[in-house]
Fold ABC transporter ATP-binding protein.
Amino acid sequence: MIAIEDVSKRYADGTVAVDRLSLQIPDHSITVLVGPSGCGKTTTLRMINRMVEPSSGTIRVNGEDIRSRPVNALRRSMGYVIQNAGLFQHRTILDNIATVPRLLGWSKERARARAAELMERVGLDPGMARRYPYQLSGGQQQRVGVARALASDPPVLLMDEPFSAVDPVVRRGLQEELLRIQEELGKAIVFVTHDMDEAITVGDRVAVMRTGGRLAQFASPDELLSSPADAFVEEFLGADRGIRGLSFLSTRELTLDRTAVFPVGSDWQEIAGRADTPAQVLVTDAGGRPLGWADPTAWGGEVEALEPHGQTFEVGRDSLRVALDRAVLSPTGQAVAVDGAGQVLGVVGQETIAAAIRAARRRRAADPEPGPSQVEAAR
Ligand SMILES: Nc1ncnc2c1ncn2[C@@H]1O[C@H](COP(=O)(O)OP(=O)(O)OP(=O)(O)O)[C@@H](O)[C@H]1O
């Protein structure tokens, strides 16, 4: 646990970068510092590993004032990842990753073996071990940066805009990789970004800072989106915060319609003749997987003539945001719900999803603590 207690930083020129900041950063979680340019995020991060000394206040790690430890020992207990990775250009990838273990006195063999293990952990091809940083893409270099920071297995990881220099697709991949690694390793991660979407994707808790280095709100992403503390936070969250908030609501409670789903070999004349048959039905293959939409009164039974069903959503794993997106994009206004094996569980229309959203909001208003199913849907 890192405790930032009433910490301020005034630089020599009089700039107040951080103003009486207090934050509790728990173990086994990702705490994000987010806010506009110049609001003091980097300064806060650097005070944790004493690259910047606070003007006042105290920072403790597991109850111990960080000033009571030699600065080198403190820094080695904290991995540090920066934008553009900051790799040593004249060292191979393997030796970049092995840097801290070597500084700690490990033998070359042991440090390199550890580095090779970390390359695998962060998703780097072992064939890259002997390359130099300039021979890697930006995204690959960032992975090396993460591997290097993890090399001595520090309990704390400080990440300063680690993924800002790569394109959105690579960035998304790096975020997913970080969440996967964190699931395995359970570090105390402090992650700086100015991108609210990134904060919401990777953060267990998000500290929104405002210019002048003051804390505007410290909350879970879900809480932030549903109850911004003030107009500044609301504006920073952006115009679509309502839609983004649906990412935290589970599809488990959705009422699915099974009466509009039929396997391809059904008696279509009989189905078309029924009074209660919907105007559009979803046709599945013999294994229960979706094939496409049909109007049973006009369809001749050819699979090629079916209207594409588009993307499906998985009940329980995907959020209401995904379900709504699928319904909006569907030619029939209905989203196709499947299980983990891809078999159709039913279909659900926009009205039903809207009702589920209202019900989830009512439940949340009655019990503001997010339930496990809501948390589970967050990723
Ligand atoms: N060494 C320094 N001397 C004087 N002022 C500084 C120094 N370093 C940072 N500042 C100022 O302190 C304030 C906070 O800077 P900081 O880098 O912590 O912000 P940030 O939120 O990380 O910004 P960005 O998102 O642009 O990286 C800014 O006004 C900045 O100009």
About this structure: Residues 11, 13, 15, 17, 35, 37-43, 194 surround adenosine-5'-triphosphate (CB under 6 Å). The domain at 261-359 is CATH 3.10.580.10 (CBS-domain).
